[in-house]
Amino acid sequence: MRIGGPLLLDLILLGVGQAMLLGLGVVRSLGQAFRCAGLAFIVGWCMLGAAIVYALIFGASLQLWQPIALAVALAAVASALGRAIPGGADTIERRERGVARVCAIAAAASLVGYLALLGVHSALTESPTGWDTWAFWLPRAKAIFSFHGLHPHLHGGFASFAHPEYPPLVPAFDAAVFRFAGATSVLALPFQDWLLAAAFVAAAAAVLRHRVRPALLWPALCLLVLAPQFGASVGAGYADPQLARLIALGAVCGGMWVLERDGRLLVLTGILLVGASLTKREGLGLALMLSVALAVAARVEGGRGWARAMLLVPTVIVAALPWQIWLHVEHVRSSPDYSLRMLLHPSYLFDRLGRLSIALERLPRIALSFDHWLLVLPLALLLAFLVIGTRSSLAVLVLGAIGAGYLGLACVYWIGTLPVTWYMRTSASRVVASLVLLAGALTPLVASELLRSAQGQDRERPAGDV
Amino acid sequence: MTEKAATPSERAGRKWIRAVVLAAFVVSAIAALTKIPQLLRAAEPKRISASSRALAPATFYGLDTRLLESAARDIPRDSSYAVVAGEGVRSRFVRVAESTLLDYWLLPRRRTDVRSSDWVVSIGGDLQSLGLRYSRLVRVGRGMELAERVR
Q1: Where are the extended beta strands (E) located within A65-144?
Q2: What DSSP designation does B124 have?
Q3: Hey, is the C-beta of B79 within 8 angstroms of any chain A C-beta?
Q4: Per-chain mean pLDDT for chain B
Q5: Which of A20, A294, A296, B123 has its CA at 20 to 30 Å from residue A422's CA atom?
Q6: Where does A37-97 have alpha helices with state H?
Q7: What span, in angstroms and rounded, lies between the C-alpha atoms of B32 and A224?
Q8: How far is CA A198 from the centre of its chain?
Q9: How many contacts (CB atoms, under 8 Å) link A and B?
Q10: What's the sign of the alpha-carbon dihedral B30, A455, A400, A203?
Q11: pLDDT of A201 higher than 60
Q12: Of A370, A36, A432, which is closest to residue A233 (Cα–Cα)?
């Protein structure tokens, strides 16, 4: 296995992300760059990944120089933003003392220790064994690498595998990993996925630390990471875990924007949701749902600029459009498991009400499963209900996003063409991850605001965008 | 930052909220602790050979890896191949899984239809019934074989 090349690609992703954070004024010192490394890595993954997807759509062959050239161009444009956008103050919550300090350190140490163990496991032991992984995610990546691009009409090429209509960010990134490795080094991919999982945790911590005290932040993140499904999904080769991380991190940045109205957080939310919309078909729906939930939450919170969240809606739609146009222009025959048009056919829907009731009953059972997610969702829901009286905007965000996502996923199973029990058995535990991770990632923020109000320390309402 | 002085009932409510939040976190933490042994077992790093890890998609589903290994060894990377399946392999799951896994495993070899392929991979199929001439036959076992066509 060759790891030097993929690690170079990782450094490039980090560089692109840091340039963006520098441009936005989020990072202005070496210390900030270090603390925001996880956020930079994920932002870089979204930006360079999206650029590679568009380049492939326009016929690029994904030669080694192409991702490098794209990265240089993105970094140059992103860092130029620095002249236009003023930097913000790097405020952090107070340091802990006594028992609270011990709790924070113990939780952070447990989290880092477990993540490190997962990292070694993914580098030495993990293999992508999931059916969908080798039925279409990995073959599509290998096809992009082997045949130098998408080539939709080539026998054995990108469109020859199941679900060619799925957005190609994950296969495109995997193909870039292969290109940097110089071979189809499939075994390098679990470690790449672990890097994204670790970056997600670091990014959530970096964003939340401005408002959440360490004694809440680290235990809450530790509870999320210790959920068995979090570790089990790392390196499995599906796109769902990365989609869940992007949606959850988007919700964290968006939730912080609702409370602080720092426009840079909204830009980061937009970048993450664009990445989500190019990662999986459900990504677009979840991104739109989250955008609307953020706008409503910001309206409830009060202050100016709440409608800016609605700009996320056209942003993610426009970002997803080139792929849809490419599918149409190239006449790619797709085999979708569902068609949203069927939601407009009352008789079709009425005949399948049984499917809806099965989905409505089983989705929460899986999301609330102790063996999958411990108490992540019950804890988040409890806090969301408690915060209704004090920070109803956060309650709207958490309950609205989870409720809308739940109904959306249930609708997918309702209109789906596959036998519903089999369909749910093979996919439900993966797709609910987006909702549980979103809830778990927002838990520290909700708990913090709840305790802040319980201590009579409500911060002032936001005035408007920075 | 600080609001006006709270009434006794507000203070009681705030204490109640703090207690509930603390209790919820403690219960969640205890629940997480019960899963630690399982998590450590699942994440235990074991040094596994690259070939075993690469073949894990097959072994995970209990498939015979010999077909994959033989096909990758014998079919040149610039050749095309077709897959025929039949009752020689009784399990429909095995036929579908082997066929799907071949698509992934044999890239960059391109899968085409039988008539235009350089090789035919049989998963329990009947190669003779296809009416093709073969220059080479590789029997893998359990009803699976590879055949290079005379072109």
Answers
A1: none
A2: B
A3: no
A4: 87
A5: B123
A6: 37-57, 65-80
A7: 9
A8: 13
A9: 143
A10: negative
A11: yes
A12: A432
A372 touches chain B (CB under 8 A): no
B88 contact A CB<8A: no
Q: Which pLDDT band holds residue A466 (cuts at 50, 70, 90)?
A: very low
The answer to whether the CB of A381 falls within 8 A of the CB of A230 is no
pLDDT score at A465: 45
- Tell me the C-alpha distance between A271 and A21, whole Å: 12
Count Cβ atoms within 10 A of the Cβ of residue A461 and give its class: 0-12 exposed, 13-18 middle, 19 or more buried: exposed
Element (H, E) at A296: helix A281-301
Structural tokens at position A38: 């996880």
> What interface predicted TM-score (ipTM) does this complex get?
0.88
A379 touches chain B (CB under 8 A): yes
Amino acid identity for residue A392 in this structure: S
Indicate if the pLDDT at residue A92 is higher than 70. Answer: no
Residue B73 and residue A150 in contact, taking contact as beta carbons nearer than 8 Å: no
Residue B149 pairs with which residues in a beta bridge? Answer: B134
Angle, alpha carbons A227-A229-A232 (nearest 5°) = 120
Q: pLDDT tens digit string along A307-356?
A: 889 999 999 999 999 999 999 999 887 767 788 888 888 898 998 899 99
Rg (CA), chain A: 21
d(CA A76, CA A70) in angstroms, rounded, equals 10
Rounded Cα–Cα distance for residues B145 and B151 (Å)? 19
Inter-chain CB proximity A447 and B45 less than 8 Å: no
CB-based contact B18 A458, cutoff 8 Å? no
Distance from CA of A182 to the nearest CA of B (A): 14
The separation between CA B103 and the C-alpha centre of its own chain, rounded to angstroms, equals: 12
Quick: pLDDT tens for A274-308: 999 999 989 999 999 999 999 999 998 887 788 88
Cis bond upstream, residue B108 (ω within 30): yes
List average pLDDT for each run of 10 residues in chain B, which is 151 residues long: 65 84 93 93 88 88 88 92 87 88 91 90 88 88 87 76
Measured between beta carbons, which residues in chain B are less than 8 angstroms from residue A231? 39, 42-43
Q: Residue A396 corresponds to which tokens in the numbers above?
A: 């709207």
Name residues 98-127 of chain B within 8 A of A (Cβ). 100-101, 103-104, 107-112
A443 shares contact with chain B (CB less than 8 Å): no
User: Cα dist. A222→A201, A380, A443 in Å?
Assistant: 9, 14, 11
Q: Which amino acid is at A444?
A: P
Local structure of A3: helix, strand or coil: coil
CA-CA distance, B145 to A73, in Å (whole number)? Answer: 51
For residue A164, the tally of other CB atoms under 10 A from its CB is 20
Q: How far is A389 from chain B (nearest CA, A)?
A: 11
Residues within 8 A of B (CB atoms), A 205-244 only: 219-220, 222-223, 226-228, 231-232
